[in-house]
């Protein structure tokens, strides 16, 4: 019920203006107002929500297909937001800053902890090729990062179900992701991960955009996780489950669009000041900032000393090109 990928790529999006013009230039006011929140879904017709979802995803699709240089930072920032919600849902106290620390300040090969592994699962969605996301080996790694254990037979059955699900329409695919996750005893977060991966494959994106992870607490998601008859039930209650999931997906798409606008503006500033940087390997530092949510000031970059790297970051902050994200005097972390 959301526009098919060929339609998205073939027709121009009249309101998808320049990213630097601000969120309002990309997403019109009528679209923002038309997206129902969790309490308003029941009063909306499924056709109306599908229309709004199609408009939102046409805009998001246009952004994804531009393959901006800051796309890596954008997807990883969305992955961080999804991981924070996943951790909270699991009863953990780590927020986005703590999750970032868990991964960036841990030595290679060391355990990043349960919450850190949740972030790795969402980063895997954001950084792996879409073609590899639902491969059996990758699914096993993701489930381990989410804290599940499973045998090879279950993993094979899961991969087979997802292959069949990938041939369905958008709505069946969306609800089906949560049904499959629930059938095997996995949580809402994994259902959201699957839905994002299936969406990316369906639309032909090279990389998935983490969307639904930040919406797993929305009304209706728990029913999707628990019920194996959700699609049949939806037809009897006016498509309540499908409406809830589509509305949540649309809200997530609009947040992703707004973040793209914000990071697009910040990346323009970074690229504008880049020619002023005289430090060796400054071009590589700029590329890392555009490709990652954040980097640590002590990272080894093309032989630069820790002192030289800190001076470079201080200069970038002074020029308003990057932000220091930790708020600490030591072990500082920088990003767009």
TrEMBL record:
InterPro entries: DUF1403
Cross-referenced Pfam families: DUF1403 (PF07183)
Stated name of the protein: DUF1403 family protein
Organism: Ollibium composti
